[in-house]
From TrEMBL:
GO terms for cellular component: cytoplasm. PANTHER family: ETHANOLAMINE-PHOSPHATE CYTIDYLYLTRANSFERASE (PTHR45780). The lineage of its organism: Eukaryota, Viridiplantae, Streptophyta, Embryophyta, Tracheophyta. Keywords: Lipid biosynthesis, Lipid metabolism, Membrane, Nucleotidyltransferase, Phospholipid biosynthesis, Phospholipid metabolism, Transferase, Transmembrane, Transmembrane helix. Pathway: Phospholipid metabolism; phosphatidylethanolamine biosynthesis; phosphatidylethanolamine from ethanolamine: step 2/3; Lipid metabolism. Gene3D superfamilies: HUPs (3.40.50.620). This is ethanolamine-phosphate cytidylyltransferase.
Amino acid sequence: MEYETNNWIWDGMYNHPHVFGGLMLTAALLGLSTSYFGGITVPQLPYLWPDSGIFHKKKCEKKRIRVYMDGCFDLMHYGHANALRQAKALGDELVVGVVSDEEIIANKGPPVLSMEERLALVSGLKWVDEVIPKAPYEITEQFMSRLFNEHKIDYIIHGDDPCLLPDGTDAYALAKKAGRYKQIKRTEGVSSTDIVGRILSSLRDTNGGEDQNNTSLHKTPESQPKSAHLSQFLPTSRRIVQFSNGKGPGPNARVVYIDGAFDLFHAGHVEILKNARQLGDFLLVGIHNDETVSEHRGHHPIMHLHERSLSVLGCRYVDEVIIGAPWEVTMDMVTTFNISLVVHGTVSEYNSLFTGESDPYSVPKSMGIFKLLESPKNITTTSVSQRIIANHDAYMKRNAKKAESEKKYYAQKTYVSGD
């Protein structure tokens, strides 16, 4: 009965805290007893300050900051991943806009990857919370209103390199004018333009990359002319730590192992890694070094070892990587990493010239811990490269145009703190 009688007081305290707080403070200053209120039991003032539900409720309802970043994300690489990692650090939730094929064609030239493939790559990144497909290349008044009102975006993010429309104006001018724009540091040493350039410079024709003497023309990035690169990727331990989950498997975790080159990280890689992760509690990925890839596939990878390692580490389904994993899965590896299952996809870049060599999975097969996974997508590094080779003229034109803005950026480049 006493609870029912005093219920109006508790309702009032929650709904009108300032009134009741002022009343109680006045009572305390005047030295009045709580009995003055007609025998109603009212908690003492000091009790309310640290534990009151009023203050606890306000603390729990702190607004989460939502940030937005867009891009073409064509030929997804670790530079894209690092940009989105930096963007996520500026808020609590990251929403990513993937520019439509039509907008890319109008502003930059033909994309290499389809919208579906680019969405799979972006959605597969560990820092991405939501994805908006077919986003516009330019932040228009209408789209900005949609971001702020429909998607509850607080800030729009972009790198410190300029993003210009065909008429030379800034694509993010409106966001800057609205005071809702934040800038991150560009990741040096790679770009989609650079990757296309590597492919074009390493293959002379569309017939598998061989000259008249049947000699492989694939080259490592380091072997290409210096003029082909305006910036070089310099791997650091800090960058690897930034991409890593920083956690090992639990004592009873089911560790799944998958290995490969993972060159030109694509949608097929994301899907096979997703399927592999579903078979256990911890996904360990072995990434072969450049020499191993060259030895067993007949040509060097387009991306070198550290570039490929960061691309794989950025995938949300990956827990840890072995940088420079051996070709064969040995008993020592299984024991050292407590591997419960070794898997391999049905679609791979295996060169038919090397079919006579020993099976790299003979040990896990003999232990009964090997599983062949059906690859969800029939995409390979070679098939992606061939798209570029097949449209050689279009991509040469696109790269020549982009190269000019790249040169201008590096000519004016200054140090930007924070990454």
